[in-house]
Design a protein that fits this description.
Blueprint (H helix, E strand, L loop, with lengths): L6 H16 L10 E9 L7 H15 L4 E4 L14 E8 L1 H18 L17 E5 L19 E7 L4 H11 L11
Helix pairs in contact: 1-4
Length: 186
């Protein structure tokens, strides 16, 4: 039997398996992944131009797109932050790039993560979106392990058309996202 590893094919085939469970009557009710947002906050290194360039370069390698700089809207004196300063970078993936990134994330990146036991079901919000935090960007194959000094974390948000948390968890499980198993030993 041919194993389906492509996310787009799994989404198309998820209708039949989720039809009874979620009470769908029409193929148009199928949940879709609308976009994937990858974001990085720069924090205290926002004044170091060289490190900002490293973050931009690594994010470009990971996603295949140029990252957009997010800037502060108003000054915050406690953080010595001025309006217009770069506070992070963001990439929004749609279409083929989105599916390719999700395939890479599920099949290569997450299994490479040290001590990975699965994604917590608490990371799915009430609107049906999944938020995954990655502590080190070096788990992605595109980034080299040569410069260990410049390691940063990133947040991956998978935006779906699910209407609630339970439907989203069922959909993401069907698509192949590895959620953590409940252990009996505490």
């Amino acid at each position: 039997m041919n194993k389906i590893t492509n996310i787009k094919d799994k989404i198309n085939l998820s209708f039949d398996s989720l039809k009874e469970k979620l009470g769908w009557k029409n193929k148009m009710q199928i949940i879709k992944i609308e976009k994937v947002i990858i974001s990085v906050g720069v924090g205290k290194i926002r004044k170091d131009k060289r490190k900002l360039e490293v973050i931009q370069d690594r994010l470009r390698k990971i996603t295949g797109q140029k990252p957009l700089a997010t800037k502060a809207k108003r000054p915050i004196a406690a953080y010595k932050l001025r309006a217009g300063e770069v506070i992070g970078y963001c990439v929004t993936l749609r279409g083929k790039n989105m599916y390719a990134f999700l395939d890479k994330l599920i099949n290569i990146t997450l299994p490479r993560t040290k001590d990975f036991l699965g994604i917590s079901k608490k990371s799915v919000d009430s609107m049906g979106n999944l938020n995954i935090g990655v502590k080190e960007h070096t788990v992605f194959l595109e980034t080299s392990d040569e410069e260990v000094m410049n390691v940063f974390g990133l947040c991956i948000t998978v935006v779906s058309s699910a209407e609630n948390k339970n439907d989203a968890i069922d959909f993401f499980t069907e698509v192949g996202l590895p959620f953590e198993k409940k252990s009996k030993i505490k």
